[in-house]
Amino acid sequence: MSGLLLRLAGPLQSWGERSAFTPVRDTAPFPTRSALIGMFAAAEGISRDEAGLDRYQDLRLTVRVDRPGVRLVDYHTVGGGFPKDRTAATSGGSNKGAAVITRRHYLSDAVFVVAVTAADKTVERLADALSRPHWAPYLGRRSCVPDEPFLLRRHVDDPEEELRTRVPLSRTAPRMKDGDGQEAGTIAVEFLWEQPPPPSGSAEPVPVDVIDVNDVPVSFAQHGRSHTGRRLHRARVPVPRSLAGPPETLTQRLIDYAHLEESA
């Protein structure tokens, strides 16, 4: 088993938790498994109506929340001022005859780093597809274009350990606390695991929240999307303070980290 690392950053992201069209198009506070699997399938050229999602069922996804972002809501209309036959279609094969109004939620200025752990051959296949995608990746919606670097590392032996100890943080380190060298040497960062997290190694155990989400894709078919549930383990984990730094050094720190793979 090995893995790759994705950095999901951009002006806007939106990770919808509902498969049906609703007036309020929400976003989860972190990338969903459905969205990530859809990204991999698109990169490999697998269309919505094609079978083959079983090829992703053994992937283990771990998310580090570098910046949670700020939630924005966009008032959005579709089909206003047009004849009925040019307005939004209905499930019965007709048209609505009026504008469709939605309020779409986004995360602004969020950054997530995702460790994708799988068998070595699967990691190689996904890395090749993400390097030269059949359909371009996006952060939940097509209008949400990812920043670079996107594929941060193609192959690491232990991607979850990389998240905890080596991948640069996209945030500024907070002020150090006087008289507490141990705490001052680390920063608490939120992680989400698909299985119970490993021991933190600190003297105090890290509190873990268990949450249930419904974001495992069963089908991406246009008129038959369906999902099932999974359990996530969420905790704030201390990582080295040295991973953070001022915003003006972030790009160089990411480039230096990415180049470690080239020089290995």
TrEMBL record:
Keyword Repeat tagged: no
InterPro entries, per the entry: CRISPR-assoc_prot_Cas5, CRISPR-assoc_prot_Cas5_N, CRISPR-assoc_prot_CasD
Keywords associated with the record: Antiviral defense
GO molecular function: RNA binding
GO terms of biological process kind: defense response to virus; maintenance of CRISPR repeat elements
CDD domains: Cas5_I-E
Gene3D superfamilies: 3.30.70.2660
Name used for this protein in its record: CRISPR system Cascade subunit CasD
Organism this protein belongs to: Streptomyces griseomycini
